[in-house]
Design brief:
There is one protein chain. The chain is mostly helical. Helices cover 62% and strands 0% of the residues. The protein has one domain. It has ten helices and no strands. Helix 6 runs parallel beside helix 8. The longest helix is centred in the last third of the chain and has 27 residues. It is globular, with a radius of gyration of 17 Å. The two termini are 34 Å apart.
Length: 226
């Protein structure tokens, strides 16, 4: 989806105040435990499509995301950073700070991946309905060469957010790594078109909004049957 957003290791050369604060916060946060307890993905992953419970918070977050998507064809287009800020903040400041810290760790390279992995796993344990740690975890697993598990986490995110830029790029990288050029091209076709192609971009936005409405309907149906 995201034009030109490769899933590759980006080496950061500086640490922002947010990153420094995250590192300090990490050691004292009640949300994060550095224990080495076993993390079993099968507790969270299944063969069936996953839709988070439609709580008031989830509904508010999805409405806000729909507004961001709709603005992609307007003059005041949201940036990648706007989407990232929204995704990371969906469960409040503490989760957001930990996510930024772990995401920064991915970019710092393999020496920092184990800590990032522990943070993602802990956030998933804390709230399995929060998709952004799962999206970033799928990206990390892909970089680590754990292709099958990465695919499962990425699919869980795409079940209810098929427009998710980062996860689309993860799928492109996964299919490329597996040598599946057909699926790789398919996922590439789902990238957000460049602003220089306004008609293709408008069609992408229309499809994303339609998908979002369909998924909201399924989430509402899921809520009513429980």
């Amino acid at each position: 989806m995201a034009n030109g957003w490769p899933i590759e290791r980006i080496v950061y050369t500086s640490c922002t105040p947010k990153d420094r604060n995250a590192a300090i916060f990490l050691s004292s946060s009640p949300l994060f435990s550095s224990s080495s307890s076993t993390f079993d993905p099968d507790e969270y992953l299944s063969q069936d499509p996953y839709y988070p419970p439609l709580t008031d918070l989830e509904l508010d977050n999805r409405k806000a995301e729909l507004l961001l998507i709709a603005r992609l064809t307007h003059g005041d287009k949201p940036t990648i950073a706007d989407f990232k800020k929204h995704w990371f903040s969906e469960r409040g400041n503490e989760f957001e700070t930990l996510l930024y810290h772990a995401d920064f760790g991915i970019g710092k390279g393999p020496d920092h991946w184990e800590e990032a992995q522990l943070v993602f796993q802990d956030l998933i344990r804390q709230d399995p309905t929060f998709l952004e740690p799962q999206a970033r975890y799928a990206k990390l697993l892909c970089l680590q060469g754990q292709l099958e598990e990465s695919t499962r986490w990425a699919q869980r995110v795409l079940d209810s957010k098929p427009w998710h830029f980062v996860t689309i790029e993860t799928m492109v990288a996964l299919c490329t790594a597996k040598g599946d050029t057909v699926l790789s091209e398919l996922w590439k076709s789902r990238r957000l078109p460049n602003p220089s192609k306004p008609e293709a971009r408008r069609q992408w936005v229309d499809r994303a909004l339609q998908d979002a409405e369909t998924i909201l309907g399924r989430m509402q149906q899921q809520k009513e049957t429980k």
